[in-house]
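input
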Amino acid sequence: QVQLVESGGGLVQAGGSLRLSCAASGRIFSEYGMGWFRQAPGKEREFVGDMSGSGTRTSYADSVKGRFTVSRDIIKNAVYLQMNSLKPEDTAVYYCAAEGANYQWTYWGQGTQVTVSS
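output
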């Protein structure tokens, strides 16, 4: 059973930074990818960034490319989302996700709120 718990959200001014953490249990990082998604009020959940199981590949949505970075610590069983140069439009609930055996986004955390003030 895979469980994901996010933390690190909060209120930050535009231009500031936050680092989100996702603690994963029951997950073998080397086999399956981990990712981050977000959902703003009144909008659909959208992809933010991810890292492959091998850790050799990352990908990002165009809206965050160059500002956000996905990383992981295998020893700590954790995945991180470093968010720099935050903008008000980054305000959303951010979710950690993990691939399942079918390599689809199968497991989800409860989400953590990020609010960026102008």
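quick obs: The first strand starts at residue 3 and ends at 7.
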